[in-house]
Amino acid sequence: MINFSLNQLIIINLWMAYLLISLVIFILLRRILITPYNLLYTICFTHYSKFLSNYLKTKDNKTSRVTHPVFSICRSAFEDVLLLQINKLKGQKQKKLIELYSSSGLLARRLKELESSSVWRRRNAIDRLSRSRSHDAVTGLLMALRDPDSAVKLIAVKALGQVKATRAIPFIISLFKDFPEDKCVVIANTLIGFGASTAPYVLENLFSTEEKVRYWLLRTLAELPIRYHPGSQEYLRTFGRIETLTQSVSPRARAYAVFCLGQLPRSNQSFRSILPLLSDRAVFVRQKATEACGNILDKRSLPYLIEKLGDHDWDVAEAAQDALFNFGRTALRTVRKGLGSKKIIIREHCKSILSYFEGIHD
Question: Is the entire prediction scored with pTM above 0.90?
Answer without folding.
Answer: no
